[in-house]
Design brief:
Oligomer: single chain
Structural class: alpha/beta
Distance between the termini: 13 Å
Radius of gyration: 18 Å
Order of helices and strands: HHEHEEEHHEEEHEHEHE
Number of strands: 10
């Protein structure tokens, strides 16, 4: 059921197989190992190390074509509670803030065949419909980029509780405002937290649409994190799943593609 022949809705592993030809993912892996330390757990204080499934996601999320364009324009990580979605989302937010995650040049000698450069004037937003939904991710951002940490010192970050700044004009922030207040922001990356809770009753779909519009103008992207949703309540998480299934079944047109990362238990579990 987990193989390529399984229908999209029945796949147990949803990431593409293999590795992409061109990717900036290795840049992120090297950046994390250089600047990040595990803040807690059995590896506390040790250099950051991704697990195999996270590496696969990074390689595909940062995959580009031969012209340097993203292969995927929207991402979703739907994993069980306790799977480390918040720490990974925090790492990705900090990578988008400081790491070489935009194409600089192709180099056949470089891992992944491409070299990166940092985002100019990054605006990284960790978004949700309520601040409590961003608490876990932002807590990990502060733990990974605490005052005096290698990352803060190397990039001259000004660390706050819900905002980080770096020169010139770089911002990493929590956003829980209405869709109207979010409109027009020149976001370079959005981490959409707990989108199973983004419902019509709290303006979630409108906020998601506004953030997507902001990103589309600049060619930048959104990554969702979510758990299982309640079917039929109109959540953003369910809509993204339906869109990915339609994409995999060939029912959509256009170049915009979703990278979906889910580990699903077999039906007989």
């Amino acid at each position: 059921m987990s193989g390529a022949l399984a229908s999209p809705a029945d796949r147990l592993i949803t990431l593409p197989s293999g590795v992409p030809e061109f990717t900036l993912g290795f840049e992120v892996i090297g950046w994390a190992r250089k600047y990040l330390r595990h803040p807690n757990g059995p590896r506390a204080g040790q250099r950051w190390q991704f697990v195999e499934s996270q590496v696969r996601f990074l390689l595909w999320w940062y995959a580009v074509d031969e012209d340097g364009n993203w292969l995927f324009h929207h991402g979703v990580r739907r994993l069980a509670k306790g799977s480390g979605k918040s720490p990974f989302a925090a790492v990705l937010a900090l990578a988008e803030f400081t790491a070489p995650v935009r194409v600089d040049d192709f180099d056949p000698k470089a891992p992944g065949g491409v070299r990166g450069k940092p985002v100019d004037m990054p605006l990284v937003q960790i978004a949700a419909t309520a601040e409590s939904q961003t608490a876990n991710t932002m807590r990990m951002v502060r733990a990974l980029a605490s005052k005096g940490s290698p990352l803060v010192q190397a990039f001259g970050l000004d660390a706050g509780k819900t905002q980080y700044y770096k020169q010139p004009e770089g911002t990493l922030e929590v956003i829980t405002a209405s869709a109207t207040a979010a409109e027009g922001a020149e976001s370079s990356c959005v981490i959409a937290d707990e989108t199973e809770h983004w419902k019509p009753s709290n303006g979630g779909p409108d906020l998601a649409a506004t953030l997507e519009d902001n990103l589309t103008k600049s060619g930048n992207r959104m990554l969702e994190t979510c758990n299982a949703w309640v079917p039929g309540i109109g959540s953003v998480a369910e809509a993204s799943w339906d869109a990915w299934v339609a994409q995999e079944e060939g029912r959509t047109r256009g170049e915009s593609k979703i990278l979906y990362d889910a580990r699903v238990a077999p039906p007989d579990t």
